[in-house]
Amino acid sequence: MDETVRDVDAFGPVLATDGTPEGSNGAGPPDGHGGDGAPVGGSGAGDGDGATRMSSLAVGIDVGGTGVKAAIVDLATGALVSPRVREKTPLPSTPEAVADTIAHIIERIEASGHDTQGLPAGAGLPGVVKDGWLRTAANIDKSWLVTRAEDVLERHLSRHVLIVNDADAAGLAEMRYGAGVGHSGVVLMLTIGTGIGSALFVDGRLVPNTELGHLEFHRRDAETLVSGAARERRKLGWKQWAGEFDAYLDRVYRYFSPDLMILGGGVSKETKRYIQYLTPRGPLEVARLLNAAGIVGAALAAAEAQGYRPPESAGVREVVAAG
After folding, report:
1. pTM of the entire predicted model
2. In order of start, what are the domains of the chain with their CATH numbers?
3. Mean of pLDDT over the chain
4. Exposure winner among 24, 98, 220, 304, fewest CB in 10 A?
5. Are 36 and 84 within 8 A, CB to CB?
6. What is the DSSP string of 242-302?
7. Measured over all CA atoms, what is the biggest interatomic distance in the chain, rounded to whole angstroms?
């Protein structure tokens, strides 16, 4: 279905498991969606001349605590137009090791027949991002704090790579192509996976680096108790976990009173197991792009930093139904 897409200025004045590719030629499964729930298209705008290709395609990279994944994104629709390739996050997850992993993933995308040369490239990283540096590192090796991330990635990938907070990237994607389309006021997205990330928008503009997963909750960092990884580590059933997560959501609502809250990240694929136990104070939606949002948003941020703006008629061609 088509939806009107509201232009979200990504940064405004801030500016700015197995490693198997999902698909072999850029086409998704018969239902038209990738294995992570993200819409997958064919070559789309990439089939035109060089100028068209440059204006609509970008590389998105999502670095998480357990996995690193990347794909080429058609920014006109938010669709993935290459296989989404995933590899495990290296241990230790040092800048050099992660950059090597990303370089290998890009090589695999290109080996599948998709050229990434000359395309804008963005990477979502788990931490506060300032001027090309990662200033916090909760779920990644602390050595990132003493190394300028963009310099390391540029050296290993032989191209400039814009870095952005990983949850902010996911939020940008949902505001442009997913559950946040058309919503004004205060919109808050939470990504629940290895940790808990957050992306806060006020009238469509991002307030970067909110990091609400680190709110104090029962005298602990919230994500150490109610992230997806914490649920598994603590061996909690979905109902028990949802009860604790609901208390965390209540605190977030009291702080920010969002007009819309969006739940994304790895647990967004398991919505039916827990959403009936939540008692939100306001509208709550599940991310449409699921855990592919980070890839799409990182690509979007990189392209917009280079001046890309979507056509007035840009919209979502295919959207995964919530839940």
Report:
1. 0.81
2. 12-169+291-305 (3.30.420.40), 184-287 (3.30.420.40)
3. 83
4. 24
5. yes
6. HHHHHHHHHHHHHHH--SEEEEESGGGGGGGGTGGG---SS-EEE-SSGGGHHHHHHHHHH
7. 57
